[in-house]
Amino acid sequence: MLDKYFAPELANLLWQDARSSGDEVGALDGDPLFNAQDMEIKNFSIQEGVGGPRMVVVPVSFENFGQKHEIKFRLFSGGGTWRIANIEYDDGSTLLDILKQDRGAAQNSQSINIYLVAVGDNGKTGKKIGCGDSLIAVPRTINKTAAPLAAAIRELLQTPKHPNVDGTSNLENFWKGRNLKVRSVSLVNGTATIRLSGEVSVAGVCDEPRIESQIDATARQFPTVKRVKVFIGNQTLAAAIR
Known about the structure:
Elements lengths: L1 H4 L2 H14 L19 E6 L3 E2 L3 E10 L2 E12 L2 E8 L6 H13 L1 E10 L8 E3 L3 E11 L4 H11 L12 E2 L4 E12 L2 E10 L6 H14 L6 E6 L2 E2 H4 L2
Parallel strand pairs: 11-12
Antiparallel strand pairs: 1-3, 2-3, 3-4, 4-5, 6-8, 6-9, 7-8, 10-11, 12-13
Helix pairs in contact: 2-3, 4-5
């Protein structure tokens, strides 16, 4: 259907946006034909096109909730069929620019997970750990990097104790303390060695499995990581939190 009404470049960008966004909002957060999220269209008028045998600009005017708008549809002819190659909005933006900018941003970013704790969930919504808690994967978008393991650990350390995660307000991060920073992360023969500086706070015995499970799962999300060793200063993680 996209190929029927849109020129190849625009059709491909629309398709990629629909596929990559899934159930979330993609580059388009409204109806691209009207450049609006909500519509009460009146006095709709398609005006005479201006151009030549291969390219025509067709102005379309309408009112939406009482506000007047004029949008220009740029059409190209190919194979005896006219298709929409771009839509120029009256706010200065164009449909191609919106889709290209979002695509460029997506190419310069990547998705990783950090693991947080649903206290008292008892394995209902994630892997059961420690004192009847659950370990939950929470996606994060980071700048594309050749060292995603180190970036994921940094993201875990920087996440607040009570992060604002939509639909999962009960999640907690137990990686909190004084001056916690990543010193180095290495991966050799499947073993990830994570060296941190600072101090991690431990409020009770139940915090120990939470802390260990969070960083272990965050590291093991990467298929090349088979084993995880964590050090805080000159101590192993196990010694530092007990």
